[in-house]
Amino acid sequence: MNSILLSVDWALVLEKTLFIAFIISISLVIAMYTTYGERKIAAWIQDRHGPNRAGPFGLLQPLADGLKLFFKEEIIPNSSNKFLFILGPSLAMITAMLTGAVIPWGDKIEIFGRSISLQIADVNIGILYVFGVVSLGVYGIMIGAWASNNKFSLMGGLRAASQIISYELAMGIALIALLMTSGTLSLGEMVRQQQTGGWNFFIQPLGFLIFLICAFAECNRTPFDLAEAENELIGGYHAEYSSMKLGFYLFAEYINMFISSAVMASLYFGGYDIIPFYDESAWGLSVNTMAVLGALALFVKILLLIFVFMWVRWTIPRFRYDQLMNLGWKGLIPLALFNMLITAAFILFLRK
Amino acid sequence: MNITEILFWFLSALALTGALMMVTGKNPVYSVLWLIVVFFAISGHYILLNAQFLAIVNLIVYAGAIMVLFLFVIMLMNLNADNEPQKNKWLKFAGLIAGGSLLLILVGALRQSDALRTQALQTGGEIGLIHHLGKVLFTDYVLPFELTSILFLSAIVGAVVIGKKGD
After folding, report:
1. Quick check: B52 contacting A, CB < 8 Å?
2. Fewest CB within a 10 Å sphere: which of A78, A103, A250, A251?
3. CATH for B1-80, options being 3.40.50.300, 1.20.1250.20, 1.20.120.1200, 1.10.8.60
4. Does B71 sit within 8 Å of A125, measured CB to CB?
5. Any idea where the domains of chain A sit in the sequence?
6. CA distance from start to end of chain A
7. Chain A contacts of B164, Cβ < 8 Å?
8. CB pairs under 8 A between A and B
9. What is the pLDDT of residues A321-339, one digit of tens each?
10. Largest Cα–Cα distance in chain B?
């Protein structure tokens, strides 16, 4: 038994544990303040004031909302499946948090002579891992919807599942084009390639557009929020949920938004790269300063992408179900295939 | 015992428990969820074998897509323990024979596992990583690979034909 404990690199375990805790708290805080930002931006777009009562500029509003959700009565319907009813929101939360593991949040930093990578796990199949977790995200919604034993909930869950599966295809094909140009599946390696040269967005603008639309659909955001269309489905898959379990579902959506913005920033906008087409190492700053500046640049990109999410939500009305399926299967998939063929042709002609 | 062995036994126990619970469970929704647990355990085994690509594709395809469709159908049909159709005994008999044949093949395959193990070691245990896998698929196994893609294509065409029947 002793030999097992000795063979573990405890410093590495400690470092990773602290970093994971840090990333999880950052995602939670950002998700919390995204709800505030969402309401402020909605108000700005609709020419209103938005939340401004709790604290200065309403800054304490997310805390007040969280407190309200915690103190509300917890109702579990009699005819529901109790275990699955609780499992649903838990799964939604867990799968939302899992993706953060492979995103490179910054370059290396050096503390006490140790070089620490600001990425939890640089696995060689990083982007496929993101894909796997995204495809598992549907279970939280489906299980919760079915366990509610309510036909409107079930309808919402089935809509969510079919939508996520349909848009995953176009997303995957759009990604294949990106993988062909970068030649790697590791997110860390992809970001490193974009450090000195241009960002992938300049090579794959169409691919990014398809990826962005699919990300809206995967996060169940308007215009693709048919799963919770309140005027047809009285709230959709979370109709029977109350208190913090409802809060977890709503919260998972905001975390998903944050994480998918982080994925898009890493894939298409150079991750922690500060200026495109420019090698920042020419500034001659120390490793730690560069890492902090890079992480800040990444968070600015993420916040801008989150703003795009909100902008679209408060601008475009919800699709009808047949329009959604038409767009996914007859619009985006052929477009993504076309993008893939064009990219392949370019690579063939340029490299020979 | 080192950590790899502990993980191996844990994952094996998880896979076997999941499989048993899936077969014996009365509620079809629980069966599907246990099957997903089995897929996770098997993916864990793939990772132990350093076959990361296989592990994650197993999760994306089986747990992420096929099981969602299973769950979809079961939820729409609203199967419960009460109204689950009873299978007749001939069907059970046929299932026994089919399962027995599969077991026979698996045992036959395991008997030559010593030879296979040395083969995998020759490439430094990195055969499961995506670079090697791609190279092998497009050099040594091109014909089976292309035949499989034709099989998939015919399955897609078949699905479209069945889907179009109503119009």
Report:
1. yes
2. A78
3. 1.20.120.1200
4. no
5. 67-351
6. 57
7. none
8. 68
9. 888 888 888 888 999 999 9
10. 62
